[in-house]
Amino acid sequence: MTLALIGVNHKTAPIAVREKVAIRRDDLADVLRALAGRPGVTECMIVSTCNRVEILAAVEGPEVSLGAFLAESTGVDARELAEHLFEYHDKEAVNHLFRMAASLDSMVVGEPQILGQVKEAFAAAREAGTVAGQLGHLLQCAFAAAKKARSETGIGANSVSIASVAVEMARKIFGSLEGRTVFLVGAGKMTVLAARHLLQQGAGKILVCNRTRERAERIAEEFDGKVVPFEQLYETASEADIVISSTGAQEAIFRKEHGQAFLHKRRNRPMFFIDIAVPRDVDPKMNDLDGIFVYDIDDLQQVAASHMEQRSRQAVDAESLIAAEVERFHQRQRTVNVAPAIVALQKRAEEIRQGEMARMHGKLASLSAEQLAAVEALTRGLVNKFLHPPMQALKQAAREADEVRLVAVCEEWHVPAGQALEDAAASLSSNEKSAEGKNNVGGREAQG
Of 95, 165, 253, 401, whose CB count within 10 A is highest? Predict the structure, then answer.
């Protein structure tokens, strides 16, 4: 069984590509079931956020093409997607997953949202029935490692979310947010976070618009804002100095002609659009208008970069911790994988013991039942003591992925190594590829 992880993220693909492969929450269950129905796929889950679309799957072999599925299911040209696609297998896939959950692969290192997003993706896969024991155990270990990184390294201290970065950019545009009218379009988590940061910076009036009015009312009540019916979106937007948009629309809801109308009503007073939706809510052509400033999710990376130096030490410590957790996970897995060989060893030893007892049956016939039980206990105890060194050697060889030693122990005791050998060989192969830098994503991300 092979663990495979493919996808695109903010390092490998611009937003113009990411928005094409983004999978809506309403479609996620159907896409998951379609993937699970592909030959060779035994378990799968999909993480789809504004910064990444990644597929994690347990597959029967490397010939299973998850990239082809992503292209087919989203209608993107496979050759275009291949230019931005990264792919990991086995140990490197585990490493990437652990780093992602710990926010070490995020646009803003230390941001807390990604862990929740991965948990939501896992929950969606469980609800769709596409994950079981293998991915379930892996994800629980990833969550524990991420929690440990945040609690023991301080990587989450003073972390800057995408929402707070957006607010900082607004402050740079206007100088001060005091008294500014803010229009929240969409009622997602990012929008709520942005609202909190805006109020902390002194923003005044807050307008909230969402297709589901009930959700908009809850947010407006929390921030003492005003609900705007979705049908009044365009006639109301001109009142706002700052528009933060994060809807699930598949096409831009703010276009150039809307911007022209807004400026006319505002008498050319500047207007700032922060588009944190994928696909984008604001047509990039809006930037052509004097007085309108549009920033999308990729533009936020520039501001986020200024905060990275403050977190560099925590990030280094967190990277070391996650690397140790990844290795610990694989050691546990290798020990589990050698279990069949240990069982075979015990079975082989018991067969020898019983054979010897049968051979000596005539000489033992005169023993009482109590004496015979003592002989049984004695021989079992001796076998267990003799088995202890080779069983420990098997476990140690598995933990260290020492294929040569594993084979030697198994051959010495005439037991099949079975899956233990295959997994050790796969682990060694994965380590060698990692050392040689053959993984195509590692090279691309290093450049990013």
Answer: 165
Q: How far apart are CA 89 and CA 432, in angstroms?
A: 13
What whole-number distance in Å separates Cα of residue 317 and Cα of residue 340? 37
**Model pLDDT, residue 308:** 62
CA–CA separation, 163 vs 295, rounded Å? 12
For the chain (448 residues), the mean pLDDT of every run of 10, in chain order, is 92 93 94 95 95 95 90 93 94 95 87 90 96 92 93 72 74 85 87 81 90 90 92 95 91 96 92 91 94 88 64 79 86 64 78 88 87 89 83 68 63 57 46 41 35
Rounded distance between C-alpha atoms, residue 280 and residue 275, angstroms: 7
In angstroms, the CA 386 to CA 380 distance is: 10
Tokens of 293: 């400033």
Instruction: For helices 369-399 and 339-359, give the axis angle rounded to 10 degrees.
Output: 150
Q: What is the DSSP letter of 159?
A: -
Q: What is the pLDDT of residue 9?
A: 95
Annotated catalytic residue 44: no
User: What is the distance between the alpha carbons of residues 132 and 42, in angstroms, rounded to a whole number?
Assistant: 9
In order of their start, the domains of the chain are 2-159+313-333 (3.30.460.30), 162-303 (3.40.50.720), 339-434 (no CATH)
Per annotation, catalytic residue among 50, 141, 209, 410: 50
Q: State the Cα–Cα distance between residues 63 and 4, nearest whole angstrom.
A: 11
